[in-house]
């Protein structure tokens, strides 16, 4: 799995995550998981009891090329456009490589 790209993305919202966000999230997750080269695509919220204003995406892609294609897919662009007014700023995205 040498070329696998690991991504962590954190989205911060100005208010607790509601049904609108959950609905858009379900659409983008389903469409992304169907993409060629997507090995894993998961979304998380903080544990119960925490103020749920953040979503963390944990992603694995076959290689950098398929990740680049994902970033321009209609479903991701639609998700970004729908979420932008609800977020506190741009998402924080980091790429990771596996050590062990």
CATH architecture: 2-Layer Sandwich
Largest sheet: 4 strands, antiparallel
CATH class: Alpha Beta
Order of helices and strands: EHEEHHE
Shape category: globular
Portion of residues within helices:
25-40%
CATH names the topology as Alpha-Beta Plaits
The share of residues in extended strands comes to 25-35%
- Quick check: average pLDDT? 94
Q: Biggest sheet, strands in spatial order?
A: 2-3-1-4
Structural class: alpha+beta
Please count the helical segments.
3
How many independent structural domains?
1
Give the beta-strand count: 4
Oligomer: single chain
Radius of gyration, CA atoms, in whole angstroms: 14 Å
Low-pLDDT segments, ≥5 res:
none
Beginning-to-end CA distance, first to last residue: 11 Å
Describe the structure concisely for a colleague.
The chain is α+β, with helices and mostly antiparallel strands and 100 residues long. It is 32% helix and 28% strand. The chain has helices spanning 19-33, 64-70, 74-83, and strands at residues 5-12, 38-44, 54-61, 92-96.
Question: Would you write up a description of this structure?
Answer:
The structure is a single chain. With 100 residues, the protein is of the alpha+beta class. The protein has a single domain (5-96), classed as 2-Layer Sandwich (Alpha-Beta Plaits). The protein has helices at 19-33, 64-70, 74-83, and strands at residues 5-12, 38-44, 54-61, 92-96. The chain has a four-stranded antiparallel beta sheet with strand order 2-3-1-4. α1 (19-33) runs antiparallel to α3. It is globular. The N and C termini lie close together (11 Å). The mean pLDDT is 94.
